[in-house]
Amino acid sequence: MTAVLVTDTLVAGYGEASVLAGISLTLDEGKTLALLGRNGTGKTTFVNTLAGVTTHHSGSIHLLGKDVTKLRADRRAAAGIGWVPQERNIFKSLTVEENMTAIARPGMWNLERIYQMFPRLKERRKNLGNQLSGGEQQMLAVGRALMVNPKLLLLDEPTEGLAPIIVDELLAAIQRITQGEGMSAIIIEQKAKKVLPLSDDAVILDRGAIVYQGKSADLLADESLLGQHLAVEKAARH
Ligand SMILES: Nc1ncnc2c1ncn2[C@@H]1O[C@H](COP(=O)(O)OP(=O)(O)OP(=O)(O)O)[C@@H](O)[C@H]1O
């Protein structure tokens, strides 16, 4: 199998401070990785390092065999890294459609396919970015990243702050994009039990280092491991 992403002993952070303490992982093409861990363990820093917006200290990043470690963020996007940051960064004064066409690159993902995936975006295509609900903004952020036709999609807590029904709608769409269409992806998510069923591999970070690496299905079945490393959401009691 071809690896879409290989990081080797990656150390990075902000200025002189290192947050990542040597991350080595491989993601095969077409697979989805759930990136888990408690608050402040370095998940966002890892994804931001892949996107090229932190300070690189040592180690390497290869995307489909190409060394992208030293590339600037815009060059990484062009090389195939599609990034949906935690802040979403929607252009507020552009319409939904303009947000997506502004940065489009040719490939299988175009407006028509994204509207199929997110019918809500089609309904809202003439609305401005600042007229959207949180869930619609997140769908737009995912749609916009897909318009670049990336090789690897990075999703930083896509469901954060969304109503439960919207969380399910968004995760179902993400599953159609990844497992359905074969997009390789890394998803940061607080709700382990929501993301593990729709991912292949799982990594848990603690203090900038990998403390678990394995199959999502195995982690999902291991309550004690989940409890040890993650704030596991309890079943609702009535
Ligand atoms: N811009 C920054 N400058 C300096 N340190 C930062 C910056 N952003 C994050 N950090 C530090 O890096 C460490 C890891 O933070 P990071 O946001 O990567 O964790 P996380 O696992 O994504 O947590 P969360 O779930 O809260 O987003 C924390 O100690 C944090 O204080």
UniProtKB/TrEMBL annotation:
Keywords: Amino-acid transport, ATP-binding, Nucleotide-binding, Ribonucleoprotein, Ribosomal protein, Transport. One of its GO terms (cellular component) is ribosome. InterPro entries: AAA+_ATPase, ABC_transporter-like_ATP-bd, ABC_transporter-like_CS, BCAA_Transport_ATP-bd_LivF, P-loop_NTPase. Coiled coil: none annotated. GO terms for molecular function: ATP binding. Residues 4-232 form the ABC transporter domain. SMART domains: AAA. PROSITE patterns: ABC_TRANSPORTER_1, ABC_TRANSPORTER_2. Belongs to the ABC transporter superfamily. This is ABC transporter ATP-binding protein. It comes from Neorhizobium turbinariae.
